[in-house]
Amino acid sequence: MESAIPRHLQCPRTLQRRVDDGYTPPFPAWTARPSRPGQTIVMALLGVQACGAHAERDACAGLRQIVAGLHAHGAPLHCDVAHQVDECGYVTMIAITYWRDVAAYDAWAGRPDIDAWWRAPARLTDGVGWFREVLAPAEQRYETLFSAPDRLEAGGAALGRLSQEIMEHGYWGSMRDRLPLSQTDPLSASGALTIIDGAPGPGARVRVAGHANLAVIRSGQDWSDTAGEERRLYCDNIAPVLRAGMDFLRDAGTSVGCYANRYMQQRDVAGRPVEKTFGLSYWHSLTELERWAESHATHVAIFGTFMQVVQELNFALRLRLYHEVAVLTSGQQRYEYVNCHARSGILNGLPRES
Amino acid sequence: MESAIPRHLQCPRTLQRRVDDGYTPPFPAWTARPSRPGQTIVMALLGVQACGAHAERDACAGLRQIVAGLHAHGAPLHCDVAHQVDECGYVTMIAITYWRDVAAYDAWAGRPDIDAWWRAPARLTDGVGWFREVLAPAEQRYETLFSAPDRLEAGGAALGRLSQEIMEHGYWGSMRDRLPLSQTDPLSASGALTIIDGAPGPGARVRVAGHANLAVIRSGQDWSDTAGEERRLYCDNIAPVLRAGMDFLRDAGTSVGCYANRYMQQRDVAGRPVEKTFGLSYWHSLTELERWAESHATHVAIFGTFMQVVQELNFALRLRLYHEVAVLTSGQQRYEYVNCHARSGILNGLPRES
To answer: Per the residue annotation, which of A78, A299, A323, A341 is the catalytic one?
Structure first.
């Protein structure tokens, strides 16, 4: 067993971990490690949204454009495609791409054809909305967790390697304890989301600045290998509770510090749904994410149901869970929306006019 | 709103609280305060156990003897009477008495008639078992929590006053954060339960020494004022899950650091059951109590169900919950069992011969 915090980032603590050195987790879990020491991850969400009678078709066509641009020029380390219908009824499709570093992402986004396409006035009149959300956490500000050692997902798939069993999981507060910077920094949020230029809404382009210590979580479920009783427990007991929690965050999240939440189902390369979902949410602070997770009935119910199933199945789960969490400086976030409705993504968290 | 830690016990922290100063609990709660500043609490469990065809009658008769001894000489500050059938099938009745300090308890227990009765060889041949478990936490090692401000219970009833709404509740880890000593001390357990003299089991008398930072919790439920939907939710949804959790601790608690658990129903002065229950459990350490509460399916289910009911009822609960927690030095604990079966109370936590 090893610490989730890689050795080269361990330092004398000024803030304590919630568990002492004698702690043994009640079940195993793993974290992703970079294949190259010190490697970071850039997570770029390249999305399209569409409404109306042909929303699915239009969003799929938009996504194909995005993916074609990726394939043409040096693919990212890892890419997931996911689908959702958002709270305003817009079909949203996103290529969630992971890059080695900001330079790699910028090299792609700055290619003349990609850049010209993105900047073109025609993007405001395509009949769909486009957006990019780019997150580039320093190594000290990023953590991952996997319930099974045999399949890496998301940023973990980009990092490429798996740790030994880790210690910091299975208790509330372990998410914070896995973040290297939490050894010495309370990760308190400050500032607010602000518009850099432009305006939200259809027919317009807007760039938004994030603030210090904004938190992002992608928390995923893969039930493709479940069968029998476990599959029934997942589909009948866990998934509906999970959806209720995700819907709450989507519809009323701002009341608890959640700017935006997308609960999405993944698609394969042919566009067919696969048995993988994830919630991806933006939070004012890690603290508010912790508070929601610990006290809101929907999340506690998810956790309680999961623990019950885990224990009923004597920890022999085929359900795979993972998450990745980033707590970002303001300079590690970029958000741009083109012809999107005014509540798209992080726009939902902008201060409302009273 | 105020801190659960009384002002005169607040000191510069070397260990952090889990929440920062900006934290606002999701619902209100209160803690008990002493009527006289600096007053401590001694909790003395004076019990009897009986088995066989007339176990109820014999246990009740035993309890009447105990209570008569209390009434005759300077009553405790507060006394609850509770009933249980333990894992070995013994009817157990306990007068849970609260005293101003060790001197007050000792003055009672040391009275010639009380002392002579307790020491008499006849206690080994009464046909019932007798026990005393006496806990005398320093003020820094004791905390209470109440979900409603209109009824004090247990040690709180002995202390006599209620705080303003407190800050440190509604998140995992708040129990620790309410203990004044946790500001500077991790409250790590050391040592083991040991026999001071005698031997466990029928026909024998045994005294057991506790170890450093053994933790005790009495966690109570009062549903006497519930009605309608709330009563149905409590009786049908919460109580059965609670019982499952209590049964687990009773039957398999040692696997998670719980030496013993009693889930008891209170009785009124006439011996009739009232709608109040509590779990009273002894733990190797506060840490293990935290770990069980946070990760064991039964407790997470209790918590999740409670949070759901609270939120469904928009926090207008008539169900009353409270608890008191003590983390004790070895000198603050005394355990003595007379003619009791070998798994009674904390005897259940003695190392087993292999």
So the answer is: A323
Chain A residue at shortest CA distance from B299: A304
Do A42-137+194-208+333-348 and A139-191+211-330 have matching folds? yes
Cα(B177)–Cα(A195) distance, integer angstroms: 40
B171, B296, B300: residue with CB nearest A291: B171
Helix (H, G, I), strand (E, B) or coil at B245: helix
- Can you name the residues that pair with A128 across neighbouring β-strands? none
Complex ipTM: 0.80
Nearest by CB to A18, from B19, B173, B310: name it: B173
CA distance B261 to B275: 20
Tell me yes or no: is domain A42-137+194-208+333-348 CATH 3.30.70: yes
Domain B23-36+139-191+211-330 has CATH 3.30.70.100: yes
Q: Is A288 on the interface with B (CB under 8 A)?
A: no
Count CB-CB contacts under 10 A for residue B244.
14
d(CA B18, CA A286): 12
Q: How far apart are CA B51 and CA A294, in angstroms?
A: 43
The one-digit pLDDT tens for each residue of chain A (354 residues) are 999 999 999 999 999 999 988 898 888 999 999 988 888 999 999 999 999 999 999 999 999 999 999 987 778 999 999 999 999 999 999 999 999 999 999 999 999 999 999 999 999 999 999 999 999 999 999 999 999 999 999 999 999 999 999 999 989 999 999 999 999 999 999 999 999 999 999 999 999 999 999 999 999 999 999 998 889 888 988 898 889 889 999 999 999 999 999 999 999 988 899 999 999 999 999 999 999 988 777 777 777 777 777 777 766 778 899 999 999 999 999 999 999 999 999 999 998 764
Q: In angstroms, how far is CA B112 from the centroid of its own chain?
A: 29
One-letter-per-residue 3-state SS of B4-58: CCCHHHCCCCCCCCCCCCCCCCCCCCECEEECCCCCCCEEEEEEEEECCCCHHHH
Structural domain boundaries in chain A: 42-137+194-208+333-348, 139-191+211-330
| Burial of B132 per CB tally in 10 Å (0-12, 13-18, 19+) | buried
- Contact with chain B for residue A287, Cβ under 8 A: yes
Query: What is each CA distance from A330 to A39, A135, A141, in whole angstroms?
Result: 20, 10, 12
Chain A window 296-315: which residues touch B at a Cβ cutoff of 8 Å? 296-297, 300-301, 303-305, 307-308, 310-311
CB contact B173 to A (< 8 Å): yes
Contact yes or no for B18 and A18 at CB 8 A? yes
Q: Which of A171, A291, A295 sits opposite B295 (nearest CB)?
A: A171
CB within 8 Å: A20 and B186: yes
Q: What does the longest C-alpha to C-alpha distance in chain B come to?
A: 60
| Domain with residues A139-191+211-330, CATH architecture | 2-Layer Sandwich (3.30)
Strand order from edge to edge, sheet including A214-222: A142-146, A320-328, A214-222, A273-283, A258-267, A78-85, A91-99, A42-50, A129-135, A333-338, A205-209, A194-198
Task: Report CB contact under 8 Å: B304, A301.
Answer: yes
